[in-house]
Write a structure and sequence with these properties.
Elements (H helix, E strand, L loop, with lengths): L14 H5 L11 E8 L9 E9 L8 E6 L25 E6 L21 H16 L7 E5 L1 H12 L7 E4 L13 H28 L3 H7 L4 H12 L9 H10 L2 H6 L1 H6 L2 H4 L7 H13 L6 H18 L28 H10 L4 H18 L2 H6 L33 E6 L9 H8 L5 E6 L22 E4 L10 E10 L9 E3 L8 E9 L16 E7 L6 E3 L2 E6 L2 E7 L2 E3 L3 E12 L19 E9 L3 E8 L4
Parallel strand pairs: 3-4, 3-5, 5-6, 6-7, 7-8
Antiparallel strand pairs: 1-2, 2-4, 9-10, 10-20, 11-15, 12-13, 12-19, 13-18, 14-17, 15-16, 16-18, 19-20
Helix pairs in contact: 2-3, 4-6, 4-14, 5-12, 6-7, 11-12
């Protein structure tokens, strides 16, 4: 017992002393740590909690570079030493420390469970959390080499760059979010119009994504949906996403969102909603949990023909939707219990913490339904409307998680507008063309209005919210070096075309870096590639019409003496700056004959700067135009020149 009149000094165990987390050994095992941070950085006396983070050290290199990854949700959890992957994982193979953390309130970064503490679930507080990680891991004056934020993580990364500009060198925003369309001072009519436009864009993106899956020439998808007639396809798309000519028809997707707030909640609570008769009441009982699960996953996958596992998911999505929405009279699904599901059908959660997802989504002005209703109904009623008509109108609250969120009278909520947090940190933005989560040109708004420094925006056609691309294997490539091409003199008659061959001197061309066009495994026997080339622009066809999209030409020979052979398959093309697929127009090649096949790049990214394009000599005679080229290892290059003059 302390002596009378003396005060005992309070002594605390540090977070690392209490947790005992250490590196478990092995190159692929992370270093796990806790750091104590205040609930409110401006009022440390209100309490603190232990923030969890972990670091994957580089497999090679000194580890003097560090990147922080901010996951989505809000509340999506990245677990150490698991099968999960993120957009930052590849950096451990490039000499970087990759740092992950659990956002305050979820995973191992728990704050007190009482809803009284929900007011501390704000991004502005989380900004200071990740700066505490910086100080703990990099030191007082340390700097992040980059912060990568995906979906909700882009909000956190954007705000960090605004308030700690000197502590981060680069920013990468993947599928970034903005709610600028819901202006803080907007009228009821303007807010309703903004929500209607946003919802319409979401449905239209998903409609087109599903349509492209049904129409895809990808072999697996073609085998699955090749027999789908156009009339049936239109009926499915109309049933799921409504009539595009009638704004009042929202389809099954719109009904589900209006009834329960979002499809994710319907999937999570499906069995309970069916048992209570709510699916029947809102005319959704003809569809299984798996149907809504696949409908939800459509936004993640997109329509890009890429890796095999993505094609398998696209087939799974298209098949489920076709089976349940493709007939005019549907049968009620009687048994959809979790025990009856296959592994592929089980839950793929979009967020892992219901508390953080709902609370932070509301407080930070992220949830569109709340932003629409708050102008008309005020914060408290708007909170109920997030859960849809069922949660708002039924006597007993339907969404048990949303029902726990409360808004303090002093809490001011404004729509998330990245322009309010503008900064000059160099930023790369990546968005998917098939991503409904970023509908309404949110990425473009951030690019134009929220960034003042160097910036780049890349949009990937056919890519969903996952932003998953084909494997490029760029680690095997070395940049092509510069040099000079010596071309022998030649005459090109007026309005004619010639191919001239030259030799590259100066810096040598890497043998492995010429453009590779690889034939499909199912190419008919007897067909042999005699040559191929890349066009820098469209050139006239035999009928005089421009083939602007025909940027790959293939000379292929049928070596068989008799039977004709067909070429109508998918080919892959790659180089250090490009990866994609080429589809050639169907042609028939008679025996012992060679023909020129015209193809177009079907997906992938063609380098807009033409980094592989030879630069014509300034003294090139007037009227001559370079329209194509072909590398022939080790040091030869064919230039395709046209004389467009009348001389």
């Amino acid at each position: 017992m302390p002596a009378a009149g003396k005060t005992t000094k309070r002594v605390f165990w540090r977070a690392d002393e209490r947790s005992g987390l250490v590196r478990s050994g092995g190159a692929d095992q992370p270093i796990e740590k806790f750091v104590s941070v205040p609930l409110d950085p401006k009022a440390p006396d209100k309490g603190s909690f232990d923030l969890y983070y972990f670091i994957y050290p580089p497999r090679i290199g000194s580890g003097d570079k560090s990147v922080l990854f901010c996951s989505g949700g809000p509340g999506q959890i990245v677990r150490p030493a698991s099968l999960e992957t993120t957009h930052a994982d590849f950096l451990v193979d490039n000499g970087y420390n990759v740092v992950h953390f659990h956002l305050r309130g979820c995973g191992y970064s728990q704050i007190p469970p009482s809803t009284v503490f929900d007011k501390y679930l704000r991004t502005r507080f989380a900004v200071e959390d990740i700066d505490a990680i910086r100080r703990d891991f990099l030191g007082k004056n340390g700097t992040w080499d980059a912060i990568i934020g995906r979906s909700y993580g882009s909000i956190l990364a954007q705000q960090y760059a605004r308030f700690h500009t000197k502590r981060v060198r680069k920013l990468v925003l993947i599928a970034p979010l903005s709610r600028h369309m819901f202006k803080a001072s907007a009228s009821v009519s303007d807010t309703e119009a903004a929500f209607a436009s946003f919802s319409s864009n979401v449905r239209e993106i998903q409609r087109e994504t599903l349509k492209r899956i049904f129409d895809s020439p990808e072999q697996g998808l073609r085998d699955e949906f090749g027999d789908l007639k156009k009339a049936e396809q239109r009926r499915i798309l109309k049933a799921v996403f409504g009539d595009p000519t009638d704004h009042t028809d929202e389809g099954v997707f719109g009904k589900a969102e209006d009834a329960f707030g979002n499809v994710q909640f319907l999937v999570d609570a499906y069995s309970d909603l069916r048992r209570k008769g709510l699916l029947k009441k809102y005319k959704l009982d003809n569809f299984s949990r798996n149907f809504f699960r696949q409908l939800r996953d459509l936004r993640l996958v997109g329509s890009m023909r890429s890796r095999r596992e993505f094609v398998a998911r696209q087939i799974e999505i298209g098949r489920a939707i076709r089976e349940e929405a493709g007939t005019e009279k549907q049968e009620i699904v009687k048994d959809d219990r979790p025990g009856k599901e296959t592994i592929n059908q089980r839950e793929r959660h979009m967020q892992d913490s219901h508390r953080v997802f709902y609370a932070m989504g509301v407080f930070d002005g992220i949830t569109p339904r709340f932003l629409r209703a708050r102008v008309r109904s005020g914060n408290k009623k708007a909170l109920k409307e997030i859960g849809g008509n069922a949660h708002f109108r039924e006597k007993k609250a339907i969404n048990i998680w949303l029902n726990k969120v409360s808004i303090d009278k002093k809490t001011k909520i404004v729509p998330w507008d990245p322009a309010r947090f503008s900064h000059g940190v160099p930023t790369l933005i990546l968005k998917g063309g098939d991503d409904p989560v970023t509908a309404g040109e949110q990425a473009e708004y951030i690019f134009s209005n929220a960034l003042t420094g160097p910036r780049t925006l890349i949009s990937f056609p056919g890519v969903g919210h996952d932003i998953s691309l084909p494997d490029g294997k760029e680690e095997q490539c070395v940049p092509i070096l510069s040099g000079v091409i010596h071309v022998p003199p030649c005459r090109i008659p007026a309005e004619d075309t010639r191919i001239v061959k030259g030799t590259i001197t100066g810096r040598s061309l890497n043998k492995d870096l010429h453009i590779m066009l690889r034939s499909p495994p199912n190419l008919q026997s007897g067909l042999r590639v005699r040559g191929y080339g890349v066009l820098t622009q469209g050139i006239p066809r035999d009928n005089g019409q421009s083939a602007a999209q025909s940027n790959i030409w293939l000379l292929i020979e049928n070596t068989n003496p008799g039977a004709a052979k067909k070429v109508d398959s998918r080919w892959s093309i790659n180089c250090p700056f490009f990866l994609g697929t080429v589809w050639f127009e169907p042609i028939t090649i008679p025996g012992k004959t060679a023909k020129l096949a015209i193809g177009s790049i079907n997906y992938g990214v063609k380098n807009p700067e033409n980094e592989l394009r030879p630069i014509p000599d300034p003294g090139l005679e007037a009227g001559l135009e370079l329209f194509g080229y072909k590398f022939t290892p080790p040091d030869n290059l064919e230039l395709w020149l046209a004389n467009n003059s009348d001389k």
